[in-house]
Amino acid sequence: MDLLDIVQNKVEEGLRISPDEALALMASHDLIRLGKIASMRCRAKNGDLAYFIVNRHINHTNICVNRCTFCAFSRDEKDPDAYTMDLSEVIQKAEQGAAEGATEFHIVGGLHPHLTLDYYLDLLSTLRQRFPHIHIQAFTAVEIDYLSRITGLPIGDLLRELKQAGLGSLPGGGAEIFDPRVRQSICPEKITGEKWLEIMEAVHAAGLKSNATMLYGHVEDTRARIDHMSRLRDLQDRTGGFQAFIPLAFHPENTRIPQTGMTTGFDDLKTMAVSRIFLDNFSHIKAFWIMLGEKIAQVSLLFGVDDIDGTVVEEKITHAAGAMTSEALSREALVRMIQKAGKVPVERDTLYREIRRYDKNQELNIKNQNDN
Ligand code: V47
Ligand code: SF4
């Protein structure tokens, strides 16, 4: 039996593969077979369903004291294109989202040197008051740590306050790569991987769900990727609080690590497939179409992915780093992408509750002349 036979047998029996096996899978070029095995794991968890969400991203400030080398979005306070939205600007964006049927606000920003906790609490409570039916997924573990440090509030108390003000769950950003040597080179000022995990453990203990990301395709090797996923899998065993794992493909333009080039489609699909096989305790693997492009995101549905994220509407982080994708996709376009991959589209809310399922006869009047 070769490695892929061994792994396939394990997946068929619902068993876990080891980090060494995952590392060996990363060296395989049998992408089609990997996709088939990942699809088995995916099907066991989600059947034929593939999820999307109607959401609105809001990046309230690009001013950040960290200035990670891979980040083209952040600015120093004095830079001419630095910005911080006041509450009325945030509300304006939220109103647009609400008018378009968003069920989620996704809010992340830089680590601002002067904003106080009141800014964040006002933002949450005002949004909750004005849009009580829209879930607020906001602030990475990195922002939570920063807020705790500038206020002196212990993480648990801080999370309680934010939750009370309207925080519904946390996005998965800021994880990057946990390996300390890689982390030191791409984001030396950022909290350690251990700290990120510690904060997520507290988030889950506070009764909040979160996602987990991994930024790949820069200076890390496959060992660092598997180490990253391994630490996530260990924490998930303890808390069960992660909903989705989201591999984020690095975009080099305008960053201080331009030499790496873009990730390849082969690597994108392999990374998603191996993550699906390895992370047996995660319900969902999400392909963020903004970073992958619509075509790879669609094909990833046959490589273990069951979620293509959302309508997004305004995306600043990857577009600052050269993303060629549009900033928004309509509900109809997402449904079509999923249906044309042979899956059943489900519009979900943030907590993966089904809002609407599109069966085969509901093609939404979006047929293209070349569709079959
Ligand atoms: O933490 C920054 C990444 C993240 C670049 O939880 C970059 O559902 C590629 O976490 N190239 C923020 N990536 C975005 C994020 C996210 C996105 C969509 C859904 C969810 C979710 C979370 O973006 C950062 C960082 O890892 N990032 N710069 C870049 N040049
Ligand atoms: Fe700041 Fe986040 Fe950009 Fe790092 S990735 S510089 S923490 S905004």
Put the structure in a nutshell.
The chain has 372 residues and is α/β, with parallel strands linked by helices. The chain has helices at 3-12, 19-26, 31-46, 87-99, 117-130, 141-151, 155-165, 180-186, 193-205, 222-239, 265-278, 289-292, 294-299, 331-340, and strands at 49-53, 55-58, 104-107, 135-138, 169-170, 209-216, 242-249, 284-285, 307-310, 344-348, 354-357. It has 14 helices and eleven strands.
What does this structure look like?
By secondary structure, the chain is α/β, with parallel strands linked by helices. The protein is 42% helix and 13% strand. It has helices at residues 3-12, 19-26, 31-46, 87-99, 117-130, 141-151, 155-165, 180-186, 193-205, 222-239, 265-278, 289-292, 294-299, 331-340, and strands at residues 49-53, 55-58, 104-107, 135-138, 169-170, 209-216, 242-249, 284-285, 307-310, 344-348, 354-357. It has a four-stranded mixed sheet with strand order 9-1-10-11, covered by helices on one side. It has a four-stranded parallel sheet with strand order 5-6-7-8. A three-stranded parallel sheet has the order 2-3-4, with helices on one face. α1 runs parallel beside α3 (31-46), α2 (19-26) runs antiparallel to α10 (222-239) and α3 packs across α11. The longest helix has 18 residues, at 222-239. It is globular, with a radius of gyration of 20 Å. The two termini are 39 Å apart. Residues 365-370 have low confidence and may be disordered. It binds ligand V47 and iron/sulfur cluster. Iron/sulfur cluster (SF4) is lined by residues 64, 66-68, 71, 73-74, 110-111, 142, 187, 190.
